[in-house]
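Progress note, sequence design subtask.
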């Protein structure tokens, strides 16, 4: 997959920090693949490229250790497990905005974030983090068996293109979308995916609550209180900052990743939902 397309987004901030995109999904196990082009039917969730993908960024930075170390994939059950802990003791911010800065990852243009920028100390950083609102602005379309479905309000679908509108998805439960699963034991508050093509590395996300600037991971019992998403990406090659480094370019791609198509169980499509986006890093 060539991620250097029109669906690559760049934000230039700070000391030359240019950063873009993060992670969300509606699938608890995050096992969806790229959707086939105009298939006759679908049987499992898959990813497409959305035409709109908006997020509100509050903070970004680099870490010398994984702040979501307690969020892991259980290889025996193939389920994401979490201790709901965010440990930022090894992290250094590169950008902060108390009000949040809205950007559209589908634009393909360099964008500026409104806020305060910081230069990280020289060092090797195997992880990067981002703090965003748990509401995403989305729009897209997908074709199945020669029928094109357009996203409408609340992630629904319609065959009339005039009804194709951007909608806000409030992520409260990675399995149930904008509301917590009625079965508390089935509420999914964390996600994880390892990308092996395009931009490679592991992305994690934990639904969180903002407590006067301190983020606390929510639990299954408190998933409906979440108002933020805390994401961490561990690229295949760590980010190295030296005293000579003038800036960091972080490019996030939503190509074949940014929107999820949810099947209806009978070969058709049920609804649209959010999907992940992956970053790559270049220092200059």
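Output:
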């Amino acid at each position: 997959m060539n991620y250097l397309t029109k669906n690559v987004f760049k934000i230039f901030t700070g000391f030359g920090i240019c950063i873009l995109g993060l992670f969300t999904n509606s699938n608890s196990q995050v096992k969806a693949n790229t959707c086939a082009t105009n298939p006759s039917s679908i049987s499992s969730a898959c990813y497409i490229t959305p035409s709109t993908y908006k997020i509100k960024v509050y903070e970004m930075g680099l870490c010398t250790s994984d702040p979501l170390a307690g969020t892991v994939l259980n290889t025996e059950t193939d389920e994401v497990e979490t201790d709901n802990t965010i440990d930022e003791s090894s992290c250094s911010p590169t950008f902060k905005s108390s009000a949040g800065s809205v950007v559209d990852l589908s634009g393909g243009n360099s964008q500026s974030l409104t806020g305060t920028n910081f230069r990280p100390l020289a060092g090797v950083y195997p992880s990067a983090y981002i703090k965003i609102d748990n509401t995403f602005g989305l729009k897209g379309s997908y074709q199945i068996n020669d029928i094109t479905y357009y996203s409408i309000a609340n992630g629904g679908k319609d065959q009339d293109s005039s009804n194709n509108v951007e909608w806000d998805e409030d992520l409260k439960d990675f399995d149930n979308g904008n509301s917590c699963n009625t079965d508390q034991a089935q509420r999914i508050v964390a996600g994880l995916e390892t990308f092996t093509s395009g931009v490679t590395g592991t992305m994690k996300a934990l639904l969180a609550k903002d407590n006067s600037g301190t983020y606390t991971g929510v639990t299954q019992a408190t998933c409906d209180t979440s108002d933020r998403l805390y994401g961490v990406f561990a690229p295949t090659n760590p980010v190295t900052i030296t005293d000579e480094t003038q800036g960091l370019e972080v490019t996030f791609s939503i190509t074949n990743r940014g929107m999820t198509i949810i099947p209806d169980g009978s070969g058709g499509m049920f609804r649209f939902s959010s999907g992940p986006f992956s970053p790559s890093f270049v220092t200059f």
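Residues 1-31 have pLDDT under 50 and may be disordered. Work on this subtask will continue into the next period as scheduled.
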